[in-house]
Amino acid sequence: MNGPAIAFAAALLVVVAAIAVHQLTTTGLEHVEAPSSGGPAGEGRPERSHGMLDLLGARLVGPLTKALGARRMTELDAAIRRAGRPDGITPTVFVRRQAGFVVLGAVCLAALWYLGSLFMGVMLAALLCAWMPLWLWGVGVRRQHAIDAELPDFLDVLGVTVRAGLGFRASLGRVCEFSDGPLAQEIRAALHEMSLGVPRRRVFEDLRDRTRSEAFGNFVAALLQAEELGVPMSDALTDIAADVRRDHAQKVRQQAAKAGPKVSLAVTVTIVPGALVLLVSAVLLGNASLFDGLL
């Protein structure tokens, strides 16, 4: 392998790595227009974007969409909705961006293979190919945790608003005016669906399935049961808020209990070996004369 070829492959790899780092920290959709007012949060944004990965994956969108099939595309849309449609991403944009990462991974694999680092090329290509699903999964998990954290306070304020005399739907809209978190966004989307004539039970069941939050699922189940049994909504919301806070506190205690063994493992793996090295070194240095006599 001659010198100019190695230099060209190295330069190409540096360029590809720079593009990969930039694209791993952005979805390329930050400059799209905001959704029109009145629609549900996260919807109504244009799909058009101008990233390098969109150009790389544009030609593969059609074949990949056909290969995935309607069922997989529906599941992908549900996962994107569960993540709150971050940056207005849609299934088509996701597939195009995933195709771009696959092309970028193939280029990195070829360049590193040419340089004699096949293992590093395979690892980098695997990371790039798996980046979009991992990114979407991470956004969904963080959104679910945020919903769990916001739910107790949201229910408290909702209960006060209902006791003040407003109807349930009007109270939901009133509380959402003072919050812009993921829970308020989901409630706004639910209110928008109810304004279009979708039954309340179906809206909340879809919302429960979309958020996949255990605390929110308990809230929806208790709310629907209270509605069927004719329990006053204010009393039901107070009881539900108390139950959610108790479950949330129990979950926090469980997480705190799990943190102890993790801290002990980290101390054992990092601090103990270092302390042993220092002790053994001190013993060896203090008895250097004895070892000189033995040698």
Explain this structure:
The protein is mainly α. The chain folds into two domains: 11-18 and 38-142, no CATH class; 146-249, Up-down Bundle (Receptor-associated Protein), CATH 1.20.81. Helix content is 79%, strand content 0%. It is built from eleven helices and no strands. Helix 6 (168-176) packs across helix 7 (182-195). The longest helix has 54 residues, at 233-286. The model is unreliable at 27-50 (pLDDT under 50).
**Separate helix tally:** 11
The averaged pLDDT comes out at: 76
Please describe the biggest sheet, giving its number of strands, its sense, and whether it closes into a barrel.
none
Q: Report strand %.
A: under 5%
- Net shape: flat
Q: What is the number of domains?
A: 2
What would you call the structural class? mainly alpha
Spans of 5+ residues with little confidence (pLDDT < 50)? 27-50
**Radius of gyration, whole Å:** 27 Å
Q: How many strands in all? A: 0
Q: Which sequence of SSEs, written as H and E, runs from N to C?
A: HHHHHHHHHHH
